[in-house]
Write a structure and sequence with these properties.
By secondary structure, this protein is of the alpha/beta class. The protein has helices at 19-29, 77-83, 89-96, 111-120, 141-159, 171-179, 197-203, 206-215, 237-247, 266-272, 286-294, 307-314, 344-355, 358-375, 378-386; strands at residues 2-7, 33-38, 41-43, 50-52, 56-59, 65-68, 100-104, 125-130, 165-168, 188-190, 223-228, 253-258, 278-280, 298-301, 319-322, 336-339. It has an 8-stranded mixed β-sheet with strand order 5-6-2-1-7-8-9-10, sandwiched between helices. The protein has a 6-stranded parallel β-sheet with strand order 13-12-11-14-15-16, sandwiched between helices. The protein has a two-stranded antiparallel ribbon with strand order 3-4. Strand 9, helix 6 (171-179) and strand 10 form a beta-alpha-beta unit. The protein starts with a strand and ends with a helix.
């Protein structure tokens, strides 16, 4: 089957660990002919925001073809980029002749070109996913009332007659599809993000855990807490976690922090790093994130949701998460605890309740391994996503 993944609502970085990277990978492993059509935007590693790369066509090491198409040239280029109007999308679909189109995000005006193609080729199956909710979108009057309630809702309804399933990747994003875009409830479903099973298997090798701990001078009997992801003003609770760990009067409790840091927070973060109890190791490649999580006794995410939540549960690890309405799907019954306040004291108390209770930690780990690895497996998720 020929599958085209359209990633034109935002940025796309080759070989990252997001859904639009891993689902195509497993579609390819399942024997399908897979192409990704995406923009020239990539997430910047130097600063928050996007960078541009050249348009072009190439293959990834896993055999997936990537086609980067440019924006249309117009007098108001910034508006064109904001509304996502591209050059050549319709003709690329004509060339590829897909059997199934997976649209990652409906927030681009050139979805009209997909609609045009489907009018002529109505035998093509279509599924759509949504990564927008009120935590990352529709947070201003114009964004909510103009972009989402009018423009992007129109895009959703344009493609709806040809779409078998609209997937929200969080419960909150399922609700967003129903309540903001007003899509038919029978077409809307949860499709969780997950973990790359190949990377999980590699990370579970006991030698990997030993290597990571040795690299950072963490002893085998140390209680290692790991957290990771972008540290910015929306996720600055990482600093609270660092302080909470420093307050724990146990020499064998250590914290490892990885990820990029917003420039305005670097001074505060560095003040909390001591090189032994609390270490900050900077940004690490996606492949390495699995190894770092697997080297831990406990993974903690004290701030807003990120794709690392599902990755950690999918690696079979006990976790602590910040409670957000619409993101509790990571709770599979005993594998995690939640934080309800942005406070050092609460984080400290919840950590101690687990560190001092080996039976509790063992039960959390057992539940995570028994349920999390299977439920958040991208091999299973990718199969479900296209089983229409």
């Amino acid at each position: 089957m020929k599958i085209v993944h359209i990633c034109l609502a935002g940025s796309y970085n080759d070989n990252w660990g997001y859904q639009d990277n891993i689902i195509p990978k497993y579609n390819k492993l399942a024997g399908h002919d897979v192409t990704i059509i995406t923009s020239i935007f990539i997430n910047s590693l130097k600063h928050s925001g996007y960078e541009k790369v050249n348009p072009g066509e190439y293959r990834l090491d896993n055999g997936v073809e990537v086609i980067r198409i440019p924006f249309r040239k117009f007098l108001f280029n910034k508006l064109i980029e904001k509304l996502r109007l591209y050059k050549g999308l319709y003709h690329k679909l004509e060339e590829i002749k897909p059997d199934l189109i997976f649209i990652h995000g409906i927030q681009f005006l050139d979805i009209y070109q997909v609609f045009r193609y489907l009018k002529v080729n109505n035998n093509v199956k279509v599924v759509v996913d949504n990564h927008a909710d009120f935590s990352n979108s529709a947070r201003t009057f114009l964004s909510y009332n103009i972009l989402h309630k009018i423009i992007w809702r129109k895009c959703a309804h344009l493609i709806e007659p040809y779409t078998t399933k609209f997937y929200g990747v969080l419960p909150a994003r399922v609700d967003f599809l129903k309540n903001v875009y007003k899509l038919p409830e029978e077409k809307v479903e949860l499709l969780v993000m997950g973990a790359d099973g190949e990377k999980v298997k590699e990370a579970k090798n006991p030698n990997i855990k030993k290597e990571i701990r040795k690299k950072y001078n963490i002893k085998p009997d140390d209680f290692l807490i790991v957290t990771g992801g972008k540290i910015d003003y929306a996720k600055k609770q990482t600093l609270l976690l660092m302080q909470a760990v420093k307050n724990i009067n146990k020499e064998n409790v250590k914290l490892l922090v990885f990820g990029s840091v917003e420039s305005g927070l670097k001074e505060k973060l560095n003040a909390l790093v001591d090189g032994e109890k609390v270490q900050y190791v900077g940004w690490i490649p996606v492949d390495e994130t699995y190894n770092h999580f697997a080297a831990s006794d406990l993974v903690v995410f004290p701030g807003r949701h990120s794709v690392f939540w599902e990755q950690a549960v999918g690696t079979g690890l006990p976790c602590i998460f910040k409670y957000w309405e619409g993101t509790t799907h990571v709770d599979l019954g005993g594998n995690c605890e939640f934080l309800y306040e942005d406070s050092v004291d609460e984080i400290y108390e919840v950590l101690l309740s687990i560190i001092k209770n080996k039976d509790k930690l063992d039960k959390m780990r057992s539940n995570a391994e028994a349920k999390g690895i299977q439920y958040f497996s991208y091999k299973e998720i990718s199969s479900k996503a296209i089983d229409v």
